[in-house]
Amino acid sequence: MGIFDKIKHAIFGEAKAAEPVAVSPQKTEPAQAPASPSAAPSPTPAAAPAQSKPATATVDIVPLLDAAVKKSGQKLDWRRSIVDLMKAVGMDASLTERKELAAELGYTGDTNDSAKMNMWLHKALMKRLSENGGKVPADLLD
Questions:
Q1: 51 and 111 share a domain?
Q2: How far is 54 from 42, CA to CA, in rounded Å?
Q3: Among 21, 24, 60, 84, which is 20 to 30 Å from 9 by CA?
Q4: What is the pTM of this model?
Q5: What is the pLDDT of residues 65-78, one digit of tens each?
Q6: DSSP secondary structure string, 21-52?
Q7: Are residues 116 and 47 in the same domain?
Q8: Do 62 and 104 fall into the same domain?
Q9: Strand, helix or coil at 14?
Q10: Is 68 helix (H, G, I), strand (E, B) or coil?
Q11: Longest Cα pair distance anywhere in the chain, in angstroms?
């Protein structure tokens, strides 16, 4: 499991793990369709794609990360700092871990310029969380 996946799991926790269950009703509907008249199977497939959208429902990261900060008992600014975000979710925020995350997310800059890398990492992480089902505030996606 990569560092991004660890962060994603730490933030989303069971909220994302429970989502595939929402896909299961899709599979039961086609089983219900043969029990209905022959005209009914046509509307059932049309209903199935509409039900796949709830499976991709987003998870609001703000309350989850705010709660993680509160639980940590530290004064952390996860909205601006990749180090604080990683600490909030109980991860190692060492330079080595951040360099590994940078490589994972495709950072091409100088990893020895940690300030620049950290700023890039935070933005890239917010974007990646958003792409993976996280509801990220627009101001953090700039």
A1: no
A2: 21
A3: 24
A4: 0.70
A5: 999 999 999 999 99
A6: HHHHHHHHHHHHGGGS-TTTTTHHHHHHHHHH
A7: no
A8: yes
A9: helix
A10: helix
A11: 67
